[in-house]
Amino acid sequence: MIYEKILKGILSVGAVVSAAPAMGQYSPTPEFPGKIGKTVPESQIAYPQYNPVATPGSPNVVWILLDDVGFGATTPFGGLIPTPTFDYLAQNGLRFNNFHTTSISAPTRAALLTGRNHHSSHTGLFNITTEGAPGYDSYIPCENGNIAEVLQENGYSTFAIGKYNATNVADAGNGGPFNRWPTNRGFDHYFGYNPAAACDDQWHPFLYRDTQREPDDSLGLPAITRFTNEALQYIADQKTAAPQKPFFLYFAPGTAHYPHQCSPEWANKFKGKFDMGWEEYSKQVLANQIKMGIVPKGTKLPIRNKEMEEWKNLTDQERKIYARQMEVYAGFLAQADYEIGRIVDFIREIGQLDNTIIMLAIGDNGATSEGGKFGKIKPERWTKEVALRVEGMNLDKLGSADTYPFYNEAWGAACNTPFRYYKMFADYEGGTHNGLIAFYPKGIKEKGGIRTQYTHCIDVYPTTVELTGAKVPEVISGYKQNPVEGISFAQSVLSADNNVEEKHTSQYYELLGTYAYYKDGWKAQFPNDIVAKERYRDENYDSIPHLYNLKEDFNENKDLAKKYPEKVAELKAEFEKDAWKYGIYPLFTNQTNAQRVFKNDRSHIEVFIGPKGYAEYPYLIGMDGHSFSLSADIEANPNTNGVLFSINGNANSFSLYLKDGVPTYCFKRYFDLPNFPQAIQKIKADRKVPEGKSNVKMDFNFNLQTYDCDVVLYINGEKVGAGSIGKGAVTSFMSILGPQLQIGRSYGVSFTDDYQSPNLFGGKIKRAYIDIKPFM
To answer: What band does 599 get if pLDDT is binned at 50, 70 and 90?
Structure first.
């Protein structure tokens, strides 16, 4: 059976997790130990323990998870982006140079938090998908209790900050259900993006506190600074109220996922630092890695990814653009290092650092190629024409609030040095090989040491359990727990040297049908992803298996598949076993061949407006590829101004608003820089709204065959304006990948000169309507 582990599995971390259940916060009311009489003198008064109490001296725990950071980006692992906080943790802790992730965000987070493989935790793809198979439905089972639930049951305070990305997108709206939001999965408090979100704007994020939308920030602070402030406040409040109680902080700021946004002050720290180009960057990083002992002596740079431009063949203007992309990325990452340093410093100031375990995973997957050949601004890929038509362009504004940039794929390849390929390549180390730093002054004996044992993100959970002495309950919140699948590497943390037996000896990888299997140093790859092959693979790649001996070939340079076909067959058979055991089957080989888009059973949605005068509709699912109508019953006058509907986000943006009483639709494609002509289109009504009550409506008609998009405006059912916004303006800006649909305002950067955001509606919206039309 697919989930035979549920029935027959043995907890892989041994006695540490197979102990008797701990009393937990969800335990039944304890039996009263005293005696009850009719009167107090006849009774024996007693006070049973209702809440779990941590073992005295239990260490605090901080997990830090970065995003889309390649192995060769930061200085602890030989990279050229200075990260002094990470350096401090590495110099006083341990670097694990053989740590692995799943190759993409949500699956890694599900695996990390639960200590189970990503398919076992039903996140075989992304949490925006809901395939009709257990390994892919994006609902992490409550039977797979996460580390916060375990530590909470052991008397810890628990906080999650930043990017959670482990809630099914269908449950991420204002109506919940909230049972798989962080505060119902073991965290006392949560502050961060919508818990389904993969990313958000750093300058104008939609943030949540627990399950409620956080008011917009009036100070103009970037998200990373707000996240750090909240983390410090949580710790300060907790240690004031309960100084003996340990805390668990899960800090996942989303850095350095796009958008790469930071102030010029941070980006300008790296002016000229990357003018040498990506090839020279990789050479310098590899030399550092060999010198530092991060990679074995004799390691060579990998085969060049075929899609990469050669720096020497670029024009001076091209080099200027691409260098600035990397400067902004470096500034973004360096600011995260600074903010994490504030957390470390604060824990030191309150006298808790020596008794705090910090696990810093420098990436939830490898660096990305999603920027394409030229990089992105918002986030459509630049074409060469757009990217290079830059006379007079103010590159210093790259990373500001009105850009949404990230670097091109060649910089992604450089940041993955010494590995080949990128995020989402589950078969190659470039997608799955990240740096890990373990810091624990009270327990680590070899400060600054390097650990070479194979480790995987599912191992961090059981390692934390063993280091803290926590007990894993057999039942959490009434759910009998499935076996933990990760294997503790606590012995590697506590050992005086690197002479430690490797315990995690086999592991599968899989994403979008491409898979690989690791066993005892050997790794076989079985590429099966049509989309990736069309763009990135070698011409003869096809579905040919590859085989590497990673004990002798650290970064997969010498393919041994033809020499050892029996080893390929052996590892394929091992994958087959795991595929049935952990729910990997059926393989989804292409995102378009599965029913991946959530269906919305409501084709007609009424939006009620509360006393704020505006509303937000996060994750309006079921819109992809559909035509739709937006309408509002309003009270206004012929001179009223303000937004009726808007999406102001990370892709195409639009606004339907009144300008001096005239309904106006503005659409913007984001692919250009500031001070550069933007693709803005406006469609205006030929008249104003009348005095008093009226209905304003917009039809968005999208032809799925031709990709033509037309907009029609109405007042009280009468057509008052129409126009085309061309091809390719698909309704993705209304999709599950997009930000919140806003009614009555447009929070974010203004993208039309007709108003300044948020441009609250000046009249009154009585009710708004969303109508999703069948496919045309």
So the answer is: low
Q: Dihedral of CA 575/577/582/583: which sign? A: positive
What was the pLDDT predicted at 377? Answer: 57
pLDDT digits (tens, 9 = 90+) for 207-265: 999 999 998 887 889 999 999 999 999 999 999 999 999 999 999 999 999 899 999 99
Instruction: Give me the amino acid identity at 402.
Output: D
Dihedral-angle region of residue 335 (phi above 0 means left; psi in -120 to 50 means alpha; beta otherwise)? alpha
Q: Are 363 and 224 in contact (CB under 8 A)?
A: no
Judged against a pLDDT cut of 90, whether residue 567 lies above it is answered with yes
Q: Which of 248, 498, 435, 462 lies closest to 357, judged by CA? A: 248
| pLDDT of 591 over the 90 cut | no
Tell which residue, 375, 492, 501, 435, has the closest CA to residue 95.
435
Neighbouring residues of 329: CB distance < 8 A, sequence distance ≥ 6: 81, 256, 260, 406, 407, 411
Q: Which residues pair with 741 in a beta bridge?
A: 617
Residue 475's SS3 state is: strand
What is the crossing angle of helices 460-468 and 105-114, to 10°? Answer: 30
Show the tokens assigned to 117. Answer: 């493989």
Q: 70, 412 in Cβ contact below 8 A?
A: yes
Rounded Cα distance, 327 and 129, in Å: 34
Q: For residue range 403-423, list pLDDT tens digits in order.
A: 888 899 999 999 999 999 999
DSSP state of 188: S
Q: How far apart are CA 117 and CA 508, in angstroms?
A: 9
CA distance 196 to 320: 36
Tokens of 253: 């700021």
Q: How far apart are CA 221 and CA 626, in angstroms?
A: 36
pLDDT of 634 above 70: yes
Which band of pLDDT confidence, cut at 50, 70 and 90, is reported for residue 27?
A: low
Beta carbons of 188 and 152 less than 8 angstroms apart = yes
Q: Classify residue 292 as exposed, middle or buried by CB count within 10 Å of its CB (0-12, 13-18, 19+).
A: middle
Q: Would you state the structure tokens that stand for residue 469, as one six-digit string?
A: 């002495």
Range list of H helices, 668-708 = none
* Total H helices, total E strands in the chain: 16, 29
Q: Within 10 Å of residue 36's Cβ, how many Cβ atoms? A: 11
Sign of the CA dihedral running 329, 434, 85, 278: negative
Distances (CA, A) of 654 to 406, 614, 715: 22, 17, 19
Q: What is the pLDDT of residue 533?
A: 53
CA distances, 240 to each of 57, 83, 312 (Å): 17, 31, 58
In this structure, what token pair is assigned to residue 601? Answer: 């059973």
Higher per-residue pLDDT: 399 or 444: 444
**Spatial CA neighbour of 172 closest among 596, 612, 615, 617:** 617
The string of pLDDT tens digits covering residues 468-519 is 999 999 999 999 999 999 999 999 999 999 999 999 999 999 998 999 999 9
Residue 160 to residue 185: CA distance in whole angstroms: 10
Q: How far apart are the first and last CA of the chain?
A: 42
